[in-house]
Amino acid sequence: MRKLKSALLWYLVAAFPTIAILAVRTLGWLQPLEWTALDIYFQLRPTETVDNRIIIVGFEEKDIAILKTADPLSDELLAQLLTKIKQQKPRAIGLDFFRDVPVGKGYAQLAQVFKAIPNLIGIEKVVGDKYDSAIAPPPILKQLNQVAVVDTVEDGDGVVRRALLFPNQRQTLGVALALSYLAKEKITPETVDQCCMKVKNTIYRLLQKNAGSYVRTDSDGYQILLNYRNPNQSFTRLSITDVLAGKKSNDLMRDRIVLIGRTAPSFNDKFSTPYSWNLNTTPIEIPGVEVQAQIASQIVSSALDNRPLIKTLNEQQELLWIVSWSVLITILASRWRRTSDPKNFATKFFLSLISSSLAVAVAVITISYLAFLWGWWIPVAPSFLALIISPLLIANYIYITKLNERQRTLEIKVADRTQELKLNNQQLEQSMTQLKNVQQQLITQSKLASLGTLMAGIAHEINNPLNCVISLADIVIKMTQDLQLEIEREYEYLPPDIIENLKEIITGLTPSITDIRSQGKRIELTIQSMTFQQIVQLSLPSLSTLMN
């Protein structure tokens, strides 16, 4: 049960960073990181060649100085410019100037020019916002049905990464110019899946609200991701004054798409792109006319050059992509956790985990970058963050787990040591008790030994006179017996009264002497018995101590 809980906790810790990152991603907080990664991939991508099929005629700063006029360009000058361009026979002309009302003199001339150029497309703004309201198209071009829209959509950081193809079911200027150009190549758009435009072999899938890094974004107006060319060298650029002066070859615009618009920075008609920022240069923005040129170039290049669009995985595939890398790190961490040397566990495990995480992170970036070169935008920020956070969390979990295991081991060792000390203490107490008993016995033995010595001295002192008494008693008894025998031998010669007296003395003396001798022997036996008991009492504690 404990192992099951440990395994569940391990996988919960390993899965937590991914779950947290997916939750944060669902809230849209990772969008800026994903946009930044996409911009970096654009900047790292090899530089593409200039698209010579598109020419931008820009109203530049030098034109303002030469023509002595600022925005808007007068109808007279615009009519002259369009006439010059028409003479070079371009396939399509895009006029990225708002002309809903006459500007200066020459409106009648401009109206005639509008009617004389069937491949000219004017612009209007159909989607109003808090900065600009809707702007009507040139009336004449509207009557001729030669109008497109120039509405753009920006991401939350102000960068244009998406292209509007059909806002309010109207073509944007870039789409109209590209389809007009391709019509001369006998390539016409088709409708597939009842929703999407197909141009030759390329299907323009609608950008979904959660495509790529986007989270609940406004995807109305048939949007696609814009596959930018490098703005620094994407298209051939001409100034209005150069075209009016005829400084360029008359064949430069033949069979090309020509876009006319404001390119001078002072007009403030500029947008940020993935190339607009970089750590080494000042941010560069492109004019609105070039945004439309990028859209036109993307459609034409995909049809004629098989240049890929920027595509995204579906939500399930993105989820699998993000989770797979975290699962890989978890599997590697589990393997190293089981096989690492316990003695050098921390060093080897952490180094292996960190190095593998860095290697996998590099693999994620490399794979996503290579996929981008093939036209796929794969989320990199969630996987990259998971590969950074997961090892840290796993390492901390392992570290805490090892500390807890070590603490439990120490607790067990302390408990065992405590039990051992208790047993040793009990043994010490028993030894102390035995020592006290031995001490008491030694004291008693010492006392008995002293007493025995005293008694031995007394017995010795008594034995000497006692032996004399017994010896004297034996002598007296012997002498009494000898006296009685002598009286019996001399009985005839002694007077009767003396004999009687001697007999009375002998009769009275013999029992007394015999009694004295008996009592002496008895005293001697008593002394010998006391001495033997003392020896035994002194010997028993010593024997008991030796036996114990």
Structure description:
With about 550 residues, the protein is of the alpha/beta class. It has two domains: about 45-310, no CATH class; about 420-545, no CATH class. The chain contains 13 helices and 15 strands. The strands form five sheets. It has a six-stranded parallel sheet with strand order 4-3-2-11-1-10. The longest helix has about 110 residues, at about 380-490. The model has no long low-confidence stretch (mean pLDDT about 80).
Write a brief structural summary.
This protein is an alpha/beta fold and 548 residues long.
Largest sheet: 6 strands, parallel
**Helicity level:** 55-70%
Strand order of the largest sheet: 4-3-2-11-1-10
The strand count comes to: 15
Instruction: Please indicate the count of domains.
Output: 2
User: What is the overall number of helices?
Assistant: 13
Share of β-strand residues: 5-15%
Secondary-structure element series: HHEHHEHEHEEHEEEEEHEEEHEHHEHH
How many angstroms separate the termini? 51 Å
Structural class: alpha/beta
- Poorly predicted ranges: none
The average pLDDT is: 82
Radius of gyration: 62 Å
